Amino acid sequence: MTGATVSESTEVTGWTEVPGWTVRLRPSVRPARRLLVFPHAGAGPATYARLLDGLPADVELLCVTLPGREHRAAELPGTTLAEAVAGITGELRRREPLPTVYYGHSMGALLAAGTAHADPSLCRALVITAGLPGPDALELPVELDTPEGLELMFARHRVPLRALDAELARTPDEYLLAHDLVLAREALLSVAGVRLGCPVTAFGGRDDQLAPASAIPAWERYTTGPFTHATLKGSHFFPFLPKSGPVVLAAITRALEPVLNTPTGGIG
After folding, report:
1. Residue 19 has pLDDT above 70, yes or no
2. Alpha-carbon dihedral angle through residues 52, 55, 58, 63, given to the nearest 10 degrees
3. What pTM, to 2 d.p., does this model score?
């Protein structure tokens, strides 16, 4: 698989799929279960195609696409958490009901948790990599919900605030990333209100400076379901490394396995 394969109009159980918040990464004729991927800031579906290529053939592989990238490149970047969650859950409800696992990396982990909280019936398990479990996971010198906090958020990712202006950003990618960081801050502040009942698996990178591995176990407080965590070799993008990626893929596959005998539409 070399990248996202999405048709402009595909019939899906009675409704016409126009590329929007969720798109299919590979063909699936008779899927029995589903994985929904939430990419990191600045990324789109194609970034995750190779990482998830080894999933079983009966898994429908969907990926969230935020405005400003890939098939939504003509749209201005930037969205609110409420808009994203409403768009994602709305499209999932119109798809064929399948047992669904969410996987999110970095900012995507926060969006995945928030989306799972918004409608628990749509998500039976959550897998997280390099996701901060709330703003208190770091000892920050300023409050994150202040102008100084936004500036600090940008500085930690080495992006200038001026990049929010397309004419002042150094590259189109920086402009896109800047707007995603605004969303990431909102999602990070909102995660404190997340309460889940599904299984959660969380991974941290041993050398991750943005989401330290020591903070990852705190994800346990957000679910009453089973919780497991581990530290893998690598920094913030450890899932894309040759040795860590297969471990993440295996965890996602395990999260999908219990749904094999679950009636369609169940949550395990």
Report:
1. no
2. -20
3. 0.89
